[in-house]
Design a protein that fits this description.
By secondary structure, the chain is α+β, with helices and mostly antiparallel strands. It has one domain. It has helices at residues 2-10, 52-70, and strands spanning 24-27, 32-36, 45-49. Strands 1-2-3 form a three-stranded antiparallel β-sheet, covered by helices on one side. The protein is globular. The structure holds zinc ion.
């Protein structure tokens, strides 16, 4: 399960726009999770997720939508 587990951790952690790795963090004031692209020229952001997992899923869906728009 080692290698598969690593891959599971990886998916959904890239910025939908520039594919930079983005950190998911917890916002203590709202008790929700947010992700924020560290690239200054991009600054994509998502917030208000009730769990780290939901933030990841949202990132992945955002990414898929973005790809479709560009096709
Ligand atoms: Zn980005």
């Amino acid at each position: 399960m080692g290698r598969k587990y690593v891959r599971d951790l990886r998916w959904g952690w890239q910025c939908p726009r520039c594919e930079t790795d983005v950190p998911v963090s917890r916002d203590p004031s709202t008790e929700t999770f947010r992700w924020e692209c560290p690239t200054e020229s991009c600054l994509s952001v998502g917030f208000g997720f009730s769990s780290r997992r939901k933030a990841r899923i949202a990132l992945r869906e955002y990414h898929e939508r973005y790809q479709e728009i560009y096709r």
